[in-house]
Here is the input.
Amino acid sequence: MLAHLPILQVIVPLMAAPACLILSRPKLVWLFTLLVSTITFFISIFLLQQVMSTGTVSYELGGWSPPWGIEYRIDKLNAFIALIISGVSTVVLLAAQTSIEKEIPENKQTLFYILYLLSLTGMLGIVTTGDAFNVFVFLEISSLSAYSLIALGKDRRALWASFQYLIMGTIGATFILIGIGLMYQMTGTLNMVDLAARLPEVAETRTVTTAYVFFIIGVCLKLALFPLHFWLPNAYTYAPSIVTTFFAATSTKVAAYLLIRFTFSIFGVSFSFTTLPMETLFLALGLLGIFVASTVAIYQQNVKHVFAYSSVAQIGYMIVGFSMSTHAGLSAMLLHMFNHALMKGALFLALGAVMYRIGSTRIDDFRGLGRQMPLTMAAIVIGGLSLIGVPLTVGFVSKWYLVTAAIDKGWWPVAGLVLLGSLLAVVYVWRIVETAYFKTPITGKDPVKEAPMAFLLPVWMLVLANVYFGIDTRMTVEVATGAAQSLFGVAP
Amino acid sequence: MTMILGLYNYWIVIVLMMIGFYIIIAHGHLIKKIVGLNIFQISVFIFYISLGKVDGGTAPIWQEGIILYSNPLPHVLILTAIVVGIATTALGLALTVRIKEAYGSVNEDEIQAMDNQVMASQEKEPQQC
Here is the structure.
Protein backbone atom coordinates (compact mmCIF):
# COMPACT_ATOMS: atom_id res chain seq x y z
CA MET A 1 0.00 0.00 0.00
CA LEU A 2 2.66 2.49 1.06
CA ALA A 3 4.79 1.66 -1.95
CA HIS A 4 1.90 2.66 -4.21
CA LEU A 5 1.44 6.16 -2.79
CA PRO A 6 2.91 8.02 -5.79
CA ILE A 7 0.30 6.61 -8.15
CA LEU A 8 -2.54 6.69 -5.61
CA GLN A 9 -2.17 10.43 -5.41
CA VAL A 10 -3.19 10.66 -9.06
CA ILE A 11 -5.51 7.66 -9.35
CA VAL A 12 -7.71 8.47 -6.35
CA PRO A 13 -9.07 11.79 -7.68
CA LEU A 14 -9.23 10.37 -11.23
CA MET A 15 -11.39 7.45 -10.14
CA ALA A 16 -13.41 9.62 -7.78
CA ALA A 17 -14.44 11.99 -10.56
CA PRO A 18 -16.86 9.65 -12.39
CA ALA A 19 -17.97 8.20 -9.04
CA CYS A 20 -19.46 11.61 -8.26
CA LEU A 21 -22.17 10.93 -10.83
CA ILE A 22 -23.50 8.07 -8.71
CA LEU A 23 -23.88 10.25 -5.64
CA SER A 24 -25.64 12.96 -7.68
CA ARG A 25 -26.84 15.04 -4.67
CA PRO A 26 -24.59 18.16 -4.67
CA LYS A 27 -24.10 18.20 -0.88
CA LEU A 28 -22.99 14.57 -0.84
CA VAL A 29 -20.75 15.09 -3.84
CA TRP A 30 -19.15 18.02 -2.07
CA LEU A 31 -18.37 15.97 1.04
CA PHE A 32 -17.01 13.18 -1.16
CA THR A 33 -14.80 15.60 -3.12
CA LEU A 34 -13.56 17.10 0.12
CA LEU A 35 -12.72 13.63 1.40
CA VAL A 36 -10.83 12.75 -1.78
CA SER A 37 -8.89 15.99 -1.71
CA THR A 38 -8.03 15.43 1.95
CA ILE A 39 -6.74 11.96 1.10
CA THR A 40 -4.43 13.37 -1.57
CA PHE A 41 -3.29 15.99 0.93
CA PHE A 42 -2.33 13.35 3.49
CA ILE A 43 -0.62 11.28 0.80
CA SER A 44 1.45 14.28 -0.24
CA ILE A 45 2.41 15.07 3.37
CA PHE A 46 3.47 11.47 3.80
CA LEU A 47 5.43 11.46 0.54
CA LEU A 48 7.21 14.67 1.46
CA GLN A 49 8.24 13.20 4.80
CA GLN A 50 9.44 10.06 3.10
CA VAL A 51 11.43 12.02 0.53
CA MET A 52 12.96 14.28 3.14
CA SER A 53 14.15 11.35 5.24
CA THR A 54 15.05 8.64 2.72
CA GLY A 55 15.50 10.44 -0.60
CA THR A 56 13.88 10.09 -4.01
CA VAL A 57 11.00 7.65 -4.40
CA SER A 58 10.67 5.88 -7.74
CA TYR A 59 7.50 4.03 -8.71
CA GLU A 60 7.28 1.73 -11.72
CA LEU A 61 3.85 1.92 -13.29
CA GLY A 62 2.51 -1.58 -13.95
CA GLY A 63 5.84 -3.07 -12.91
CA TRP A 64 7.59 -2.08 -16.15
CA SER A 65 11.03 -0.91 -15.26
CA PRO A 66 12.14 2.50 -16.52
CA PRO A 67 13.18 3.77 -19.03
CA TRP A 68 10.81 1.46 -20.98
CA GLY A 69 7.88 1.73 -18.66
CA ILE A 70 6.43 4.90 -17.22
CA GLU A 71 8.10 5.94 -14.03
CA TYR A 72 6.65 8.14 -11.31
CA ARG A 73 9.46 9.87 -9.54
CA ILE A 74 9.02 11.87 -6.37
CA ASP A 75 11.87 14.04 -5.19
CA LYS A 76 11.94 17.03 -2.87
CA LEU A 77 10.85 19.44 -5.58
CA ASN A 78 7.69 17.73 -6.75
CA ALA A 79 6.72 16.48 -3.31
CA PHE A 80 6.75 20.13 -2.24
CA ILE A 81 4.64 21.30 -5.19
CA ALA A 82 2.18 18.40 -4.74
CA LEU A 83 1.80 19.47 -1.11
CA ILE A 84 0.94 23.03 -2.19
CA ILE A 85 -1.62 21.83 -4.73
CA SER A 86 -3.43 19.27 -2.59
CA GLY A 87 -3.27 21.50 0.51
CA VAL A 88 -4.79 24.54 -1.18
CA SER A 89 -7.34 22.36 -2.95
CA THR A 90 -8.55 20.91 0.35
CA VAL A 91 -8.83 24.25 2.13
CA VAL A 92 -10.59 25.86 -0.83
CA LEU A 93 -13.09 23.01 -1.03
CA LEU A 94 -14.28 23.75 2.52
CA ALA A 95 -16.00 26.85 1.16
CA ALA A 96 -16.97 25.34 -2.18
CA GLN A 97 -20.56 24.28 -1.56
CA THR A 98 -21.59 27.57 0.05
CA SER A 99 -19.97 29.56 -2.69
CA ILE A 100 -21.27 27.70 -5.72
CA GLU A 101 -24.82 27.60 -4.35
CA LYS A 102 -25.01 31.23 -5.36
CA GLU A 103 -22.87 31.09 -8.47
CA ILE A 104 -23.69 27.85 -10.27
CA PRO A 105 -27.19 26.46 -11.02
CA GLU A 106 -28.03 23.37 -9.01
CA ASN A 107 -28.13 20.93 -11.92
CA LYS A 108 -24.53 21.80 -12.77
CA GLN A 109 -23.08 21.56 -9.27
CA THR A 110 -22.23 17.86 -9.49
CA LEU A 111 -20.51 18.48 -12.80
CA PHE A 112 -18.52 21.25 -11.15
CA TYR A 113 -17.04 18.81 -8.64
CA ILE A 114 -16.26 16.28 -11.35
CA LEU A 115 -14.35 18.88 -13.32
CA TYR A 116 -12.66 20.09 -10.16
CA LEU A 117 -11.42 16.58 -9.38
CA LEU A 118 -10.20 16.07 -12.95
CA SER A 119 -8.33 19.33 -12.78
CA LEU A 120 -6.75 18.26 -9.50
CA THR A 121 -5.82 14.92 -11.09
CA GLY A 122 -4.16 16.68 -13.99
CA MET A 123 -2.11 18.98 -11.81
CA LEU A 124 -0.97 16.24 -9.42
CA GLY A 125 -0.20 14.05 -12.43
CA ILE A 126 2.02 16.66 -14.07
CA VAL A 127 3.89 17.06 -10.84
CA THR A 128 4.43 13.41 -9.93
CA THR A 129 5.18 11.86 -13.29
CA GLY A 130 8.70 11.11 -14.46
CA ASP A 131 7.74 10.72 -18.10
CA ALA A 132 7.80 13.60 -20.56
CA PHE A 133 4.80 12.50 -22.61
CA ASN A 134 2.78 11.86 -19.49
CA VAL A 135 3.30 15.52 -18.70
CA PHE A 136 1.49 16.47 -21.90
CA VAL A 137 -1.42 14.12 -21.22
CA PHE A 138 -1.95 15.36 -17.68
CA LEU A 139 -1.50 18.93 -18.82
CA GLU A 140 -4.40 18.49 -21.20
CA ILE A 141 -6.53 16.78 -18.55
CA SER A 142 -6.07 19.73 -16.24
CA SER A 143 -6.43 22.33 -19.01
CA LEU A 144 -9.58 20.92 -20.58
CA SER A 145 -11.27 20.76 -17.20
CA ALA A 146 -9.98 24.26 -16.47
CA TYR A 147 -11.61 25.68 -19.62
CA SER A 148 -14.95 24.16 -18.67
CA LEU A 149 -14.66 25.30 -15.05
CA ILE A 150 -14.02 28.88 -16.13
CA ALA A 151 -16.96 28.74 -18.54
CA LEU A 152 -19.23 27.94 -15.55
CA GLY A 153 -18.98 31.59 -14.45
CA LYS A 154 -22.24 33.52 -14.19
CA ASP A 155 -21.18 36.40 -16.41
CA ARG A 156 -21.30 35.77 -20.16
CA ARG A 157 -17.77 37.15 -20.36
CA ALA A 158 -16.67 33.92 -18.64
CA LEU A 159 -17.48 32.10 -21.89
CA TRP A 160 -15.39 34.45 -23.94
CA ALA A 161 -12.52 34.31 -21.44
CA SER A 162 -12.69 30.54 -21.47
CA PHE A 163 -12.61 30.45 -25.29
CA GLN A 164 -9.57 32.72 -25.39
CA TYR A 165 -7.86 30.57 -22.78
CA LEU A 166 -8.73 27.47 -24.82
CA ILE A 167 -7.03 28.88 -27.91
CA MET A 168 -3.95 30.10 -26.04
CA GLY A 169 -3.74 27.01 -23.85
CA THR A 170 -3.98 24.64 -26.79
CA ILE A 171 -1.29 26.51 -28.68
CA GLY A 172 0.88 26.27 -25.55
CA ALA A 173 0.20 22.56 -25.10
CA THR A 174 0.91 21.87 -28.78
CA PHE A 175 4.22 23.71 -28.48
CA ILE A 176 5.06 21.51 -25.52
CA LEU A 177 4.15 18.48 -27.64
CA ILE A 178 6.52 19.62 -30.40
CA GLY A 179 9.26 20.12 -27.81
CA ILE A 180 8.77 16.63 -26.42
CA GLY A 181 8.71 15.17 -29.94
CA LEU A 182 12.01 16.79 -30.83
CA MET A 183 13.56 15.57 -27.59
CA TYR A 184 12.40 12.06 -28.36
CA GLN A 185 13.79 12.33 -31.89
CA MET A 186 17.24 13.19 -30.58
CA THR A 187 17.44 10.77 -27.66
CA GLY A 188 14.92 8.00 -28.29
CA THR A 189 13.58 8.20 -24.76
CA LEU A 190 10.79 9.90 -22.85
CA ASN A 191 11.88 9.08 -19.32
CA MET A 192 13.06 12.25 -17.58
CA VAL A 193 16.09 10.72 -15.89
CA ASP A 194 17.10 9.00 -19.12
CA LEU A 195 16.56 12.23 -21.06
CA ALA A 196 18.80 14.09 -18.64
CA ALA A 197 21.52 11.47 -19.17
CA ARG A 198 21.31 11.44 -22.96
CA LEU A 199 20.71 15.08 -23.83
CA PRO A 200 24.25 16.36 -23.07
CA GLU A 201 25.68 14.16 -25.87
CA VAL A 202 23.54 15.91 -28.46
CA ALA A 203 23.31 19.31 -26.76
CA GLU A 204 25.29 20.99 -29.54
CA THR A 205 22.65 20.30 -32.18
CA ARG A 206 20.13 22.81 -33.39
CA THR A 207 17.30 20.32 -32.85
CA VAL A 208 17.85 20.26 -29.11
CA THR A 209 17.89 24.03 -28.94
CA THR A 210 14.62 24.09 -30.92
CA ALA A 211 13.12 21.47 -28.61
CA TYR A 212 14.01 23.53 -25.57
CA VAL A 213 12.67 26.76 -27.03
CA PHE A 214 9.35 25.20 -28.12
CA PHE A 215 8.92 23.58 -24.75
CA ILE A 216 9.73 26.71 -22.79
CA ILE A 217 7.43 28.94 -24.85
CA GLY A 218 4.62 26.45 -24.37
CA VAL A 219 5.20 26.39 -20.63
CA CYS A 220 5.43 30.18 -20.44
CA LEU A 221 2.01 30.44 -22.12
CA LYS A 222 0.60 28.22 -19.39
CA LEU A 223 2.56 30.10 -16.76
CA ALA A 224 1.14 33.43 -18.02
CA LEU A 225 4.60 34.94 -18.04
CA PHE A 226 4.49 38.52 -19.27
CA PRO A 227 3.89 39.13 -22.26
CA LEU A 228 2.04 35.83 -22.73
CA HIS A 229 -0.42 36.57 -19.93
CA PHE A 230 -3.40 37.95 -21.87
CA TRP A 231 -5.68 35.01 -21.19
CA LEU A 232 -5.22 35.16 -17.42
CA PRO A 233 -6.93 38.32 -16.06
CA ASN A 234 -10.33 37.73 -17.66
CA ALA A 235 -10.26 34.00 -17.02
CA TYR A 236 -9.62 34.63 -13.32
CA THR A 237 -12.11 37.46 -13.05
CA TYR A 238 -15.18 35.85 -14.59
CA ALA A 239 -14.69 32.27 -13.39
CA PRO A 240 -16.65 31.18 -10.29
CA SER A 241 -14.87 32.34 -7.12
CA ILE A 242 -13.84 28.86 -6.04
CA VAL A 243 -12.33 28.15 -9.43
CA THR A 244 -10.41 31.41 -9.38
CA THR A 245 -9.03 30.67 -5.92
CA PHE A 246 -7.98 27.16 -6.86
CA PHE A 247 -6.30 28.17 -10.12
CA ALA A 248 -4.67 31.34 -8.84
CA ALA A 249 -3.06 29.34 -6.05
CA THR A 250 -2.06 26.25 -8.01
CA SER A 251 -2.14 26.20 -11.80
CA THR A 252 0.64 28.70 -12.44
CA LYS A 253 2.75 26.83 -9.87
CA VAL A 254 2.45 23.70 -11.93
CA ALA A 255 3.74 25.52 -15.00
CA ALA A 256 6.55 27.01 -12.93
CA TYR A 257 7.39 23.49 -11.79
CA LEU A 258 7.66 22.32 -15.40
CA LEU A 259 9.92 25.24 -16.17
CA ILE A 260 12.24 24.32 -13.30
CA ARG A 261 12.11 20.59 -13.98
CA PHE A 262 12.98 20.82 -17.66
CA THR A 263 15.49 23.63 -17.35
CA PHE A 264 17.41 22.36 -14.34
CA SER A 265 17.06 18.60 -14.14
CA ILE A 266 16.60 17.66 -17.79
CA PHE A 267 18.43 20.14 -19.98
CA GLY A 268 20.81 21.19 -17.22
CA VAL A 269 22.01 24.61 -16.15
CA SER A 270 25.03 24.60 -18.42
CA PHE A 271 22.83 24.13 -21.49
CA SER A 272 19.99 26.51 -20.67
CA PHE A 273 21.96 29.29 -19.07
CA THR A 274 25.34 29.12 -20.74
CA THR A 275 24.56 28.02 -24.29
CA LEU A 276 21.32 29.98 -24.48
CA PRO A 277 20.86 33.55 -23.18
CA MET A 278 18.06 32.51 -20.82
CA GLU A 279 19.41 34.54 -17.93
CA THR A 280 19.01 37.91 -19.61
CA LEU A 281 15.76 36.96 -21.27
CA PHE A 282 14.01 35.72 -18.13
CA LEU A 283 15.37 38.53 -16.00
CA ALA A 284 14.06 41.14 -18.44
CA LEU A 285 10.65 39.47 -18.80
CA GLY A 286 10.37 38.94 -15.05
CA LEU A 287 11.12 42.56 -14.22
CA LEU A 288 8.90 43.89 -17.01
CA GLY A 289 6.14 41.61 -15.77
CA ILE A 290 6.46 42.99 -12.23
CA PHE A 291 6.23 46.61 -13.30
CA VAL A 292 3.75 46.47 -16.16
CA ALA A 293 1.30 44.11 -14.44
CA SER A 294 1.49 45.96 -11.10
CA THR A 295 0.87 49.28 -12.82
CA VAL A 296 -2.09 47.89 -14.75
CA ALA A 297 -3.44 46.41 -11.49
CA ILE A 298 -3.62 49.90 -9.98
CA TYR A 299 -6.12 51.07 -12.59
CA GLN A 300 -8.56 48.16 -12.45
CA GLN A 301 -12.19 48.67 -11.44
CA ASN A 302 -12.82 45.07 -10.40
CA VAL A 303 -10.95 43.76 -7.37
CA LYS A 304 -10.68 40.32 -8.97
CA HIS A 305 -8.94 42.01 -11.91
CA VAL A 306 -6.59 43.78 -9.49
CA PHE A 307 -5.46 40.53 -7.93
CA ALA A 308 -5.35 38.73 -11.28
CA TYR A 309 -2.89 41.29 -12.63
CA SER A 310 -1.05 41.10 -9.33
CA SER A 311 -0.71 37.35 -9.98
CA VAL A 312 1.03 38.13 -13.27
CA ALA A 313 3.37 40.44 -11.34
CA GLN A 314 4.06 37.76 -8.71
CA ILE A 315 4.97 35.33 -11.50
CA GLY A 316 7.48 38.01 -12.49
CA TYR A 317 9.11 37.73 -9.05
CA MET A 318 9.33 33.95 -9.40
CA ILE A 319 10.94 34.31 -12.81
CA VAL A 320 13.46 36.83 -11.49
CA GLY A 321 14.49 34.21 -8.91
CA PHE A 322 14.59 31.61 -11.66
CA SER A 323 16.77 33.73 -13.94
CA MET A 324 19.53 33.93 -11.33
CA SER A 325 20.23 30.21 -11.88
CA THR A 326 21.87 30.08 -8.48
CA HIS A 327 20.96 27.94 -5.51
CA ALA A 328 19.74 30.97 -3.55
CA GLY A 329 17.67 32.31 -6.43
CA LEU A 330 15.96 28.99 -7.01
CA SER A 331 15.21 28.59 -3.29
CA ALA A 332 13.65 32.06 -3.32
CA MET A 333 11.52 31.09 -6.30
CA LEU A 334 10.31 27.89 -4.63
CA LEU A 335 9.56 29.74 -1.41
CA HIS A 336 7.61 32.33 -3.32
CA MET A 337 5.62 29.62 -5.09
CA PHE A 338 4.52 28.26 -1.72
CA ASN A 339 3.93 31.68 -0.21
CA HIS A 340 2.09 33.04 -3.22
CA ALA A 341 -0.27 30.08 -3.07
CA LEU A 342 -1.10 31.02 0.53
CA MET A 343 -1.58 34.74 -0.19
CA LYS A 344 -3.64 34.41 -3.33
CA GLY A 345 -5.61 31.54 -1.82
CA ALA A 346 -6.60 33.75 1.13
CA LEU A 347 -7.29 36.84 -1.01
CA PHE A 348 -9.39 35.21 -3.71
CA LEU A 349 -11.32 33.17 -1.19
CA ALA A 350 -12.10 36.33 0.78
CA LEU A 351 -13.26 37.89 -2.49
CA GLY A 352 -15.45 34.81 -2.91
CA ALA A 353 -17.04 35.69 0.44
CA VAL A 354 -17.65 39.26 -0.75
CA MET A 355 -19.13 37.88 -3.96
CA TYR A 356 -21.38 35.64 -1.86
CA ARG A 357 -22.74 38.56 0.16
CA ILE A 358 -22.98 41.40 -2.35
CA GLY A 359 -22.81 39.55 -5.66
CA SER A 360 -20.10 41.77 -7.09
CA THR A 361 -16.41 42.42 -6.67
CA ARG A 362 -16.34 45.89 -8.21
CA ILE A 363 -14.24 48.22 -6.16
CA ASP A 364 -17.06 50.76 -5.75
CA ASP A 365 -19.22 48.13 -4.10
CA PHE A 366 -16.55 47.69 -1.44
CA ARG A 367 -17.52 50.97 0.22
CA GLY A 368 -18.33 50.46 3.86
CA LEU A 369 -17.50 46.76 3.82
CA GLY A 370 -14.79 47.37 6.42
CA ARG A 371 -17.53 47.78 9.03
CA GLN A 372 -20.07 45.38 7.63
CA MET A 373 -17.80 42.42 6.96
CA PRO A 374 -14.95 43.08 9.42
CA LEU A 375 -13.49 39.57 9.47
CA THR A 376 -13.48 39.16 5.69
CA MET A 377 -11.97 42.58 5.13
CA ALA A 378 -9.36 41.98 7.82
CA ALA A 379 -8.39 38.85 5.91
CA ILE A 380 -8.03 40.88 2.72
CA VAL A 381 -5.88 43.42 4.58
CA ILE A 382 -3.54 40.76 5.98
CA GLY A 383 -3.41 39.01 2.61
CA GLY A 384 -2.65 42.35 0.99
CA LEU A 385 0.12 43.07 3.50
CA SER A 386 1.56 39.68 2.68
CA LEU A 387 1.41 40.52 -1.01
CA ILE A 388 3.35 43.72 -0.33
CA GLY A 389 5.89 41.85 1.76
CA VAL A 390 5.44 43.32 5.23
CA PRO A 391 7.46 41.58 7.97
CA LEU A 392 5.73 38.79 9.93
CA THR A 393 3.94 37.62 6.78
CA VAL A 394 5.07 35.05 4.22
CA GLY A 395 5.45 37.75 1.58
CA PHE A 396 8.33 39.20 3.57
CA VAL A 397 10.10 35.85 3.74
CA SER A 398 10.09 35.30 0.00
CA LYS A 399 11.05 38.91 -0.79
CA TRP A 400 13.88 38.68 1.74
CA TYR A 401 15.28 35.54 0.15
CA LEU A 402 14.84 36.99 -3.32
CA VAL A 403 16.65 40.22 -2.47
CA THR A 404 19.51 38.45 -0.67
CA ALA A 405 19.84 36.08 -3.63
CA ALA A 406 20.09 39.05 -5.99
CA ILE A 407 22.72 40.70 -3.78
CA ASP A 408 24.66 37.43 -3.55
CA LYS A 409 24.76 37.34 -7.28
CA GLY A 410 25.92 40.96 -7.36
CA TRP A 411 22.74 42.19 -9.00
CA TRP A 412 22.23 45.30 -6.89
CA PRO A 413 19.91 47.07 -9.34
CA VAL A 414 17.68 43.99 -9.47
CA ALA A 415 17.38 43.94 -5.68
CA GLY A 416 16.37 47.60 -5.80
CA LEU A 417 13.81 47.02 -8.55
CA VAL A 418 12.24 44.13 -6.64
CA LEU A 419 11.74 46.41 -3.64
CA LEU A 420 10.39 49.16 -5.88
CA GLY A 421 7.90 46.68 -7.30
CA SER A 422 6.56 46.13 -3.78
CA LEU A 423 5.71 49.83 -3.60
CA LEU A 424 3.35 49.38 -6.54
CA ALA A 425 1.67 46.59 -4.57
CA VAL A 426 1.21 49.09 -1.72
CA VAL A 427 -0.73 51.33 -4.10
CA TYR A 428 -3.19 48.77 -5.36
CA VAL A 429 -3.75 47.17 -1.97
CA TRP A 430 -4.25 50.60 -0.40
CA ARG A 431 -6.94 51.47 -2.94
CA ILE A 432 -9.00 48.53 -1.77
CA VAL A 433 -8.38 49.23 1.92
CA GLU A 434 -9.26 52.89 1.48
CA THR A 435 -12.51 52.10 -0.29
CA ALA A 436 -13.53 49.47 2.23
CA TYR A 437 -12.73 51.39 5.39
CA PHE A 438 -12.76 55.10 4.69
CA LYS A 439 -15.36 55.76 2.01
CA THR A 440 -18.92 56.22 3.10
CA PRO A 441 -21.20 53.39 2.03
CA ILE A 442 -23.74 54.01 -0.70
CA THR A 443 -26.89 55.23 1.02
CA GLY A 444 -30.15 53.40 0.64
CA LYS A 445 -28.50 49.99 0.43
CA ASP A 446 -29.31 47.23 2.87
CA PRO A 447 -26.47 46.63 5.31
CA VAL A 448 -24.44 43.55 4.48
CA LYS A 449 -23.91 40.76 6.97
CA GLU A 450 -20.57 39.12 7.74
CA ALA A 451 -19.71 36.16 5.54
CA PRO A 452 -20.90 32.71 6.72
CA MET A 453 -18.66 30.39 8.74
CA ALA A 454 -18.09 28.16 5.71
CA PHE A 455 -16.10 31.01 4.23
CA LEU A 456 -14.51 32.47 7.32
CA LEU A 457 -13.00 29.18 8.43
CA PRO A 458 -10.95 28.41 5.29
CA VAL A 459 -10.14 32.09 4.70
CA TRP A 460 -8.71 32.46 8.17
CA MET A 461 -6.94 29.13 7.97
CA LEU A 462 -5.08 30.52 4.96
CA VAL A 463 -4.55 33.91 6.60
CA LEU A 464 -3.14 32.32 9.75
CA ALA A 465 -0.93 30.13 7.56
CA ASN A 466 0.29 33.38 5.97
CA VAL A 467 1.31 34.65 9.39
CA TYR A 468 2.54 31.32 10.76
CA PHE A 469 4.87 30.56 7.85
CA GLY A 470 5.96 34.19 7.96
CA ILE A 471 7.29 33.70 11.49
CA ASP A 472 8.26 30.05 11.63
CA THR A 473 10.07 29.54 8.34
CA ARG A 474 11.95 26.38 9.29
CA MET A 475 9.80 23.91 7.40
CA THR A 476 9.36 25.88 4.18
CA VAL A 477 12.96 27.07 3.98
CA GLU A 478 14.32 23.61 4.70
CA VAL A 479 12.23 22.02 1.96
CA ALA A 480 12.82 24.80 -0.58
CA THR A 481 16.58 24.91 -0.11
CA GLY A 482 16.69 21.11 -0.04
CA ALA A 483 14.82 20.95 -3.33
CA ALA A 484 17.04 23.61 -4.89
CA GLN A 485 20.09 21.73 -3.66
CA SER A 486 18.99 18.46 -5.23
CA LEU A 487 18.44 20.28 -8.54
CA PHE A 488 21.97 21.57 -8.57
CA GLY A 489 23.31 18.29 -7.28
CA VAL A 490 25.77 20.03 -4.97
CA ALA A 491 25.75 21.57 -1.54
CA PRO A 492 25.36 25.37 -1.59
CA MET B 1 18.48 20.15 -52.86
CA THR B 2 18.56 17.28 -50.36
CA MET B 3 17.64 19.87 -47.77
CA ILE B 4 14.33 20.39 -49.58
CA LEU B 5 13.52 16.94 -50.93
CA GLY B 6 15.13 14.73 -48.29
CA LEU B 7 13.35 16.45 -45.48
CA TYR B 8 10.07 16.97 -47.29
CA ASN B 9 8.00 15.65 -44.37
CA TYR B 10 9.30 18.46 -42.16
CA TRP B 11 8.47 21.03 -44.80
CA ILE B 12 4.90 19.77 -44.93
CA VAL B 13 4.72 20.01 -41.14
CA ILE B 14 6.06 23.56 -41.13
CA VAL B 15 3.74 24.73 -43.90
CA LEU B 16 0.68 23.19 -42.24
CA MET B 17 1.66 24.60 -38.89
CA MET B 18 2.02 28.10 -40.26
CA ILE B 19 -1.30 27.87 -42.12
CA GLY B 20 -3.02 26.81 -38.92
CA PHE B 21 -1.32 29.46 -36.86
CA TYR B 22 -2.17 32.14 -39.40
CA ILE B 23 -5.85 31.18 -39.38
CA ILE B 24 -5.97 31.37 -35.58
CA ILE B 25 -4.46 34.83 -35.56
CA ALA B 26 -6.00 36.37 -38.66
CA HIS B 27 -9.62 35.19 -38.53
CA GLY B 28 -12.20 36.66 -36.21
CA HIS B 29 -14.76 33.92 -36.74
CA LEU B 30 -14.63 31.53 -33.80
CA ILE B 31 -15.35 28.38 -35.84
CA LYS B 32 -12.56 29.31 -38.24
CA LYS B 33 -10.25 29.72 -35.29
CA ILE B 34 -11.08 26.19 -34.15
CA VAL B 35 -10.43 24.90 -37.66
CA GLY B 36 -7.08 26.70 -37.60
CA LEU B 37 -6.31 25.14 -34.25
CA ASN B 38 -7.07 21.72 -35.73
CA ILE B 39 -4.74 22.22 -38.67
CA PHE B 40 -2.08 23.46 -36.25
CA GLN B 41 -2.43 20.33 -34.11
CA ILE B 42 -2.55 18.00 -37.10
CA SER B 43 0.78 19.31 -38.33
CA VAL B 44 2.28 18.10 -35.06
CA PHE B 45 0.57 14.73 -35.47
CA ILE B 46 2.19 14.35 -38.88
CA PHE B 47 5.52 15.34 -37.37
CA TYR B 48 5.26 12.56 -34.80
CA ILE B 49 4.08 9.98 -37.31
CA SER B 50 6.89 10.72 -39.75
CA LEU B 51 9.30 10.61 -36.84
CA GLY B 52 8.63 6.92 -36.24
CA LYS B 53 9.05 5.88 -39.87
CA VAL B 54 12.30 4.08 -40.57
CA ASP B 55 13.45 4.04 -44.21
CA GLY B 56 12.71 0.61 -45.63
CA GLY B 57 11.14 -0.56 -42.38
CA THR B 58 7.77 -2.29 -42.27
CA ALA B 59 4.90 -2.20 -39.84
CA PRO B 60 6.05 -3.38 -36.41
CA ILE B 61 4.50 -6.85 -36.62
CA TRP B 62 6.85 -9.77 -36.08
CA GLN B 63 7.36 -11.84 -39.20
CA GLU B 64 10.07 -14.12 -40.37
CA GLY B 65 12.66 -12.68 -42.68
CA ILE B 66 12.06 -9.08 -41.72
CA ILE B 67 14.64 -7.32 -39.64
CA LEU B 68 13.83 -3.65 -40.08
CA TYR B 69 10.74 -2.25 -38.39
CA SER B 70 9.36 1.26 -38.02
CA ASN B 71 9.19 2.65 -34.51
CA PRO B 72 5.63 2.21 -33.25
CA LEU B 73 6.01 4.35 -30.12
CA PRO B 74 5.45 7.79 -31.70
CA HIS B 75 2.36 6.41 -33.44
CA VAL B 76 0.93 5.24 -30.15
CA LEU B 77 1.77 8.53 -28.50
CA ILE B 78 0.00 10.46 -31.19
CA LEU B 79 -3.16 8.39 -30.78
CA THR B 80 -3.40 9.94 -27.35
CA ALA B 81 -2.77 13.39 -28.76
CA ILE B 82 -5.47 12.88 -31.40
CA VAL B 83 -7.97 12.05 -28.67
CA VAL B 84 -6.91 15.18 -26.83
CA GLY B 85 -7.34 17.16 -30.05
CA ILE B 86 -10.88 15.86 -30.51
CA ALA B 87 -11.75 16.74 -26.93
CA THR B 88 -10.38 20.24 -27.42
CA THR B 89 -12.34 20.71 -30.64
CA ALA B 90 -15.54 19.46 -29.03
CA LEU B 91 -15.09 21.78 -26.07
CA GLY B 92 -14.26 24.70 -28.35
CA LEU B 93 -17.37 24.11 -30.45
CA ALA B 94 -19.54 23.74 -27.35
CA LEU B 95 -18.20 27.04 -26.06
CA THR B 96 -18.91 28.63 -29.43
CA VAL B 97 -22.54 27.51 -29.18
CA ARG B 98 -22.82 29.01 -25.70
CA ILE B 99 -21.14 32.21 -26.87
CA LYS B 100 -23.58 32.46 -29.77
CA GLU B 101 -26.47 32.08 -27.32
CA ALA B 102 -25.09 34.63 -24.89
CA TYR B 103 -23.75 37.26 -27.28
CA GLY B 104 -25.69 36.55 -30.46
CA SER B 105 -22.46 36.60 -32.42
CA VAL B 106 -19.49 34.37 -33.17
CA ASN B 107 -17.24 37.16 -34.33
CA GLU B 108 -14.27 38.05 -32.16
CA ASP B 109 -14.41 41.79 -32.84
CA GLU B 110 -18.13 42.09 -32.15
CA ILE B 111 -17.85 40.14 -28.88
CA GLN B 112 -14.90 42.25 -27.80
CA ALA B 113 -16.81 45.43 -28.65
CA MET B 114 -19.78 44.29 -26.55
CA ASP B 115 -17.50 43.52 -23.63
CA ASN B 116 -15.77 46.88 -23.89
CA GLN B 117 -19.15 48.61 -23.87
CA VAL B 118 -20.14 46.84 -20.66
CA MET B 119 -16.80 47.77 -19.11
CA ALA B 120 -17.19 51.41 -20.09
CA SER B 121 -20.74 51.67 -18.72
CA GLN B 122 -19.66 50.13 -15.42
CA GLU B 123 -16.91 52.66 -14.98
CA LYS B 124 -19.27 55.59 -15.44
CA GLU B 125 -21.90 54.32 -13.02
CA PRO B 126 -20.36 55.46 -9.70
CA GLN B 127 -20.31 59.09 -10.76
CA GLN B 128 -24.05 59.08 -11.23
CA CYS B 129 -24.87 58.02 -7.70
Notes: Residues 327-358 of chain A form the longest helix (32 residues). The interface with chain B takes residues 133, 136-137, 140, 144, 147-148, 151, 156-157, 159-160, 162-163, 166-167, 170-171, 173-174, 177-178, 181, 184-185, 301, 362, 364, 442 of chain A (CB under 8 Å). Residues 298-492 of chain A form one domain.
